[in-house]
Write a structure and sequence with these properties.
There is one protein chain. With about 575 residues, the protein is α/β, with parallel strands linked by helices. The protein contains 13 helices and 25 strands. The structure holds one RNA strand of 75 nucleotides.
RNA sequence: UGGGGCGUGGCCAAGCGGUAAGGCAGGGGACUUUGGAUCCCCUAUUCGCAGGUUCGAAUCCUGCCGCCCCAGCCA
């Protein structure tokens, strides 16, 4: 490795700048952040950005990051999600230590604080219906008007709020509101709702409560209770910041956190809206939340994307306040970069065609030594059996090749990787004109892939011994949506679903060592791409997912040729 | 005609008054027992537009234009 001086600039962005300045100027002693998901769905790559930001900052500045579930709405939240979120954050590579919290842990404290605001005349029970509240709220350009219940007495408010908690009223009968300013230009300040009545079972507190705090009344105070210093969220909460600050300013909170907002992650050919992801699952467009085409962390994991690649991608993309849509190619680059360095190389033939080496002894099996990863000499070598009859990729032979085609063709010599040079002498076709068998001769002096005379074929092919082969199903994946911006333009994005987002190949063949690749490990099928075993694999029935293909300049050339030739 | 934000190359993104980093994508070349990887080189006389301040502006000021978010008893 080269000797880089300490001048290597740390990754920086506006949030890290703020944290660094707060530390440097003594406004805080150490940084505390939090990742605060609502357990109402699976985490996706957009959440990965927030997770990497919050945990990343805590790690870089020697602070800590909490995992806090924002479980204030029992109608939408489930234990299943609480479990999956923890699994996904851990998989991404982060550890919250002892700092696992739930907003519901603070329900009693939050209630006490609400009572305090009522006593101070800063909150009131409103009997208006949801519709009435909406019509009193005004519009974006017109101020709202006060509820007729806005000025009722403290004692009556106290009594009513207590009875709300006691379960005396049905859902929607009353709410508790902060008394701020119905004429504010910021609609969040027009007497926001602090508590609503919801008779529902909560995944953590069960039936202990029938009133639940709103996001606005819970979030900042939860941060304050935990000593969070920097409460980092996405841009759409900017308008909530004045309210966040209003509550911490009007309540005896133990600390005063501050909120900062960044732009959420968007990717081309991808949709991250929970609503749409749910539809994809419910309408059977994909097989589930963990379908390898889903942008969920569980889906990406099943697809074979390494967590490190995701982290690198997030770092590469940066954090800013401008709305943006990142090209998926950047993600794919980050993932390939990790995989290229780490993934063991293996042989697999997706679309096999038979090769017979006429001058190779019948019945002989040689064990050829093949490097596990040319990028990493420490990965060592493995042994792959070589015999007279082999399989190669159908697309690696052309009867009548164009000038740019370097692979096997009649009369042409190519190298079989780590084995021998072979020259095609003949080929057989079936009645439909389809190639069924190639005949070749080999050069015994080329064993291992080089010859004394230094001949260098233009192509090197992967291969498999016909008598040492494991059958496999291979699932090829591509973008779920055809358009780079599926949600743009107002049309139904389901019309933009890529019909070839999943292509299932049967009759594929892989080398014997592949029977034992553990789930979660991604390998490279040499010259083909990165693949990982799918959990659908069963003894005797291997299933591989294509994580990503290799960059393919030949395919690019062919595509160009098609265009030029038009 | 309300409030809050944002506008730097195809896509991200540094830059914080001293004369446009970096990555991805794209193009060209070298090398190569993966048409992979790697390595070189090329791609903004210009920072939404127009004025102004200044010796000097992407950075400061004014005006305009464009885009995003907000009217859940969701988060």
């Amino acid at each position: 490795m080269n000797t880089e001086t300490a001048s290597t600039p740390e990754r920086s962005d506006f949030v890290r700048d703020i944290v660094a300045a707060d530390l440097r100027e003594g406004r805080i002693d150490s940084v505390v952040t939090r990742f605060p998901p609502e357990p109402n769905g699976y985490l996706h790559i957009g959440h990965a950005k927030s997770i990497c930001l919050n945990f990343g900052i805590a790690g870089e500045f020697g602070g800590r990051c909490h995992l806090r579930f924002d479980d204030t709405n029992p109608l939408k939240e489930e234990q299943e999600y609480i479990d999956s979120i923890q699994e996904d954050v851990r998989w991404l590579g982060f550890d919250w230590g002892q700092h696992l919290y739930f907003a519901s842990d603070y329900f009693e404290q939050l209630y006490d604080w609400a009572v305090l605001l009522v006593r101070d005349g800063k909150a009131y029970v409103d009997d208006l219906s949801a519709d009435e509240i909406r019509s009193h709220r005004g519009t974006l350009t017109e101020p709202g008007s006060n509820s007729r219940w806005r000025d009722r007495g403290v004692e009556e408010n106290l009594d009513l709020f207590a009875r709300m908690r006691a379960g005396e009223f049905p859902n929607g009968a009353r709410v508790l509101r902060a008394k701020i300013d119905m004429a504010s230009g910021n609609i969040n300040l027009r007497d926001p709702i602090m508590y609503r009545i919801v008779h529902a079972t909560h995944p953590r507190t069960a039936d202990a409560w029938c009133i639940y705090p709103s996001y606005d009344f819970a979030h900042g105070q939860s941060d304050a209770i935990e000593g969070v210093t920097h409460s980092i969220c996405t841009l759409e909460f900017q308008d909530h910041r004045p309210l966040y600050d209003w509550f911490t300013a009007n309540l005896p909170v133990p600390s005063v956190p501050h909120q900062y907002e960044f732009a959420r992650l968007n990717l081309t050919h991808t949709v991250l809206s929970k609503r749409v992801l749910l539809r994809l699952v419910n309408e059977g467009s994909v097989r589930g939340w963990d379908d390898p085409r889903m942008p969920t962390l569980t889906g990406l994991r099943r697809r074979g994307f390494p967590a490190e690649g995701l982290r690198d991608f997030v770092a590469m993309a940066g954090v800013a306040r401008a709305d943006s849509v990142i090209e998926v190619e950047m993600l794919e680059h980050a993932v390939r970069d990790i995989l290229n360095r780490n993934a063991p190389r293996r042989f697999a033939v997706l679309d096999p065609v038979k090769v017979v080496i006429d001058n190779y002894p019948e019945g002989l099996t040689e064990e050829m030594e093949v490097p596990n990863n040319p990028e990493d000499p420490d990965a060592g070598t493995r042994t792959v059996p070589f015999t007279r009859e082999l399989w190669i990729e159908r697309e690696d032979f052309m009867e009548d090749p164009p000038s740019k085609f370097f692979r096997l063709a009649p009369g042409r010599e190519v190298r079989l990787r780590s084995a021998y040079f072979i020259t095609c002498t003949d080929f057989l076709k079936d009645d439909d004109g389809r190639i069924v068998e190639l005949h070749c001769t080999y050069d015994p002096a080329s064993r291992g892939g080089s010859t004394p005379d230094g001949r260098r074929p233009k192509a090197t092919l992967h291969w498999l011994s016909a008598s040492h082969t494991i059958p496999a199903e291979v699932r090829l994946y591509d973008h779920l949506f055809t358009s780079p911006h599926p949600s743009a333009g107002g049309r139904d994005i389901f019309e933009d679903l890529n019909p070839e987002s999943e292509v299932i190949l049967s009759g594929c063949l892989v080398e014997p060592s592949l029977v034992s690749v553990p789930i979660g490990e991604t390998v490279q099928f040499e010259r083909v791409g990165y693949f990982c075993p799918d959990p659908d694999s069963a003894p005797g029935v291997l299933v591989f997912n294509r994580t990503l293909g290799l960059r393919d300049t030949w395919a690019k050339l062919q595509a160009q040729g098609r265009h030029d030739g038009a």
